Protein 1
Amino acid sequence: MSMVAVYDIQGKQVGEVAVPEAFTGTPHTAVLHEAVVWQLAGRRRGTHSTLTRGMVSRSTRKLYRQKGTGRARHGGRGAPIFVGGGIAFGPHPRDYSYPLPKRVRRLALRSALCAKVAAGHLAVLDRLDLEGPKTKVLAGLVRGLGWEAPAGRRGAVLLIMAGPDQVVRRSVANLPGMRVLPATALNVHDILACEHLLVTREALERITEAFSR
């Protein structure tokens, strides 16, 4: 059983906590790739659309007689071969999402967490009680942990809360290097996209409970 550090709101280590055995295995890279592709496919809007020759506004008058000119036969300016004509076999609105087995999704999420634990990029926050939006407090926390994002790097730290918290969300809104998610919205893509994962103690308990079912 691996141990990860526990920090207070000032970014000072106050102890250690054991992570579940499920988070200490070897990451399954093939399943991680499959889950990320599945997740990004589901995010595609699929609203792309092109005009076929029946949709373009072009003259339908026959250009020249059918035979005797030595040229190819054409029936109108809307053919795909002409500039301004319709598109042959172009993209049309469609749904890119597809089902992925629940066992594969769970294994991918476990593998993503295992990768963060193995790299030492997962830490636990003892508690986070904010009476109001306090960007300065969370900025000091990131600075105390030494996890400040370089210029232009967004979302270097992913903060996982036990549930939706509008106060914390508003506090993080002006921090380019930090993002926040509830434990129920934890996903493979966001875990792999961040450099460091900061989980509150309560959120860790909920994640552990979910994987024990």
Protein 2
Amino acid sequence: MAPFDLAQPASLQEAIALLGAEGARPFAGGTALMLMMKAGVLRPHRLVSLHRLKLSSIETGSGRGLRIGAMTTLSALERSPEVRKGWPVIARTLRTLSNVRVRNVATVGGALAHADPHMDLPPLLSALGAKVLLRDRNGQRAVPVEELYAGYLENTLKPGELITHVEIPPLGKRGAAYLKCTTRSADDWPAVGVAVALGEEMRIFVSAATDRPTRIADESGLAGLKIESDLHGSAAYKRQLLKVYLRRAIDEARNASH
């Protein structure tokens, strides 16, 4: 691993200023970042730790939506009583996201910013209509989760921009489901993932088989998808899996409707 400096800012403003320098990258849980640095894929000159920032929170607002701080760990989100009661599909999804050791360290913001299409949260939060709040030295903006992604391991964050919170609208009487197919253990990277939320409109997002969470209107939309082959399966194999898992996810979402 190449040598690097470690900065530990005490405020969001300080962190954003440090990230404006060339060769600086944010450090949250580090579960993906450290692996990429050890492999030589990333060689940052400076890591900017976010651990002293007050971004670990899970709150329900006046509209009963959910607001999650970017430094909230995945295990904290999984165990949250508010999440289990109001958004049980998120808690169910997190139980098989990697393993408990990773979930104890990995953060919500890091999981979203990493832009790995095999991650479970991006397609699910996209289906739920969630938004991320982004902050840089020029201010704050909010974007739908699906707009964070430009391609494989490629996000749309501007230089020096950080995810500070995720906002999820109330689930209400909507049914939602996320299903994935793993070719080995249940916590392995999926070959395909399908997230469905039912309401006035049906929101369907597929992942793992595509280079980013991708929305389709219904099953007919699968025909136009560019499917990615990888170690978890060929494009033809994944296309067949998607047909099966989409039907199952829609059925599960309907059964979950309040």
Protein 3
Amino acid sequence: MIPFELEQPRTLKAALKLLDAGDPSVRVFGGGTALMLMMKAGVFQPTRLISLRGVEARYAKVKKDKDGSLHIGALITLSALGRAAAVKKAAPVIIETLQTLSNVRVRNVATLGGHLAHADPHMDLPPVLIALDAQVVTAAAAGSRTLAVADLLTGYYETALADNELISEIIVPSQQGRRSAYIKLTTRTADDWPTLGVAVSLITDGNTVEDARIVVSAATEKPVRLQTAEAALRGASITDAVLARVGDAAAAEAELVGDARGSAAYKRELLRVHAGRAVRKALAA
């Protein structure tokens, strides 16, 4: 590694002042799990790193609001998120997803904000958060803004964040009346990078689906909602034939990419089968 400066601000405001929108070699990190790998591989050579580990503790906590929404600090570690009682009660699909997200060593260090800002399409939580209609709150010297997680992730390792903008909070709206699930398919161990990820969130009236969100990831350049597949579910009573139509719609709609974990054609067949299975899993939640 080449030498670099390390800044350790004590407040988020101080950290923002250290950012330089005109210098792409300056990086902020929470846990640094992805950043350190990139530096060791020589993919990224920073001139300055800004550690957020010392900023206000409130950015690493979970709060449940009166309206049932969860306000999650961006610096909470994935392990702490997985132990949060408020999250387990309000959005148990997040807890379940974290059980096979990488490994405990990574989860003990990696932060939720970093997980999202890294924008790796193989990450497990982004499709789940999109299915839950979650938002991120950002911070910058010019002020804050709120945008949907779906709008944050713009492409392969790309986000809508400006170079001098940070994620400060993640908001998960009340999931009252919703049932959600995530299916992760891997080619090796359960905690490996997914070959395909499918997140589903439903509102039902008896056996009839009133609203559906279906998100595919890992096999795509970014997590994507499958609106044609969602439309095939809305107003329908769940039968094997309906789920088959959902799977066909998902496979036809998604723009899939091949990689070392499988060809695009292989992933398309996985999606065709597992879109319906994810719906079944959500119904059983």
Protein 4
Amino acid sequence: MKIVCDRLYNGALAARGVAVIIDVFRAFTCAPLLFSMGVEKLFLIATPEQAFALKEKDRDLILVGEVSGIPIKGFDFGNSPSEILRKGPEFFEGRTVLQRTSSGVQGALLALDAADEVLLGSYALAGSTVKYLLSKKPEIVSLVAMGWELKEIAPEDEWCVRYLSHLLGNGSYDHNEALSEIVFHKTTQRFLRREETYFPPEDPLICLQRDVYDFALRAVKQADRVEVHKISI
């Protein structure tokens, strides 16, 4: 198994084999959380306009996402796991979610045109994702850190790449060193300083938990949509 570590927009475009598109803060922490809260279906959407058009046809759809980190007016939730957690499973049970974000979702949509298979990656999904990869044994695994808006490196995604690579048997990983760099970086401090309500301080606490779920998530093109499928491990 050849492991290729890459990042940002060009990394998503260059992904080959099985691509793991990593967005720790916060898209692909929200995605598995939504499934654990009882969501039946999850679709990745490129633009708010696409989401609104689909909701016009089905008012029961739940819209989750952001543009440049800012919640989208008219969406039900921003890109916040703590907001989703606070709402409770009764709201989500059996429903369908459309998710639009500026990093993870966009990266996954790009990688679908290049890679054989696209998985969603985060610390929460790391262990189950690696179990799936080890069972599948692809020739190439592309680990892609999406960063901030596919343009700026974010340490939480970079370290998650290293963690996944380590679990796959390639290289070392020190979680204390990872936390030291992540927690004191401006990306995390944006949440901890409470300067904007849409960056709640609870989100990093949720996003930095490792190996939470017993399923992996795969993005699959279906007609005019991209659906996220749960893969039981």
